[in-house]
Amino acid sequence: MVLQAMGRILVGLCQVGAWGCFDEFNRLEERMLSAVSQQIQTIQEAVRAGGDMKVDLVGKTLSVNSNMAIFITMNPGYSGRSNLPDNLKQVSSLECLYMLL
């Protein structure tokens, strides 16, 4: 269910060229995290190709609007969180923000 919902959101972002931010991404179950990461990797490859590449997401074949972007946030310090899959680490730019109280 979560994978289908995430897939539909990703399809929408790809079609209209919107930006999406997924907060606490690493709270997904590990198997879901891996599957969604694979979808994100596929989308990113299409964006790098200038949107000329067709992708298959949740049973739909579509072109990716090259204006789209995906951002994720995660908090690895809390228990019960999953590690970011290696395939997503390799294709993403990781930025850290520390809040000092």
What does this structure look like?
Helices cover 40% and strands 16% of the residues. The chain is built from three helices and four strands. The radius of gyration is 14 Å and the shape is globular. With 101 residues, it is α+β, with helices and mostly antiparallel strands. Strand 2 and strand 3 (60-63) form a beta hairpin. The strands form two sheets. A two-stranded parallel sheet has the order 1-4. It has a two-stranded antiparallel sheet with strand order 2-3.
Chart the SSEs and their pairings.
Layout: H1 2-16, E1 19-22, H2 30-48, E2 54-57, E3 60-63, E4 69-72, H3 86-91
Parallel strand pairs: 1-4
Antiparallel strand pairs: 2-3
Helix pairs in contact: 1-2
Family: Belongs to the dynein heavy chain family.
InterPro entries: AAA_6 (IPR035699), DHC (IPR026983), P-loop_NTPase (IPR027417)
GO biological process, one term: microtubule-based movement
Can you tell me the residue ranges where pLDDT is under 50 for at least 5 consecutive residues? none
Secondary-structure element series? HEHEEEH
Report the β-strand fraction as a percent range. 15-25%
User: Structural class of the secondary elements?
Assistant: alpha+beta
Helix content: 25-40%
Distance between the amino and carboxyl termini: 38 Å
Report the CATH architecture: 3-Layer(aba) Sandwich
Protein name: Dynein heavy chain hydrolytic ATP-binding dynein motor region domain-containing protein
GO molecular function, one term: dynein intermediate chain binding
Organism: Parascaris equorum
InterPro entries: AAA_6, DHC, P-loop_NTPase
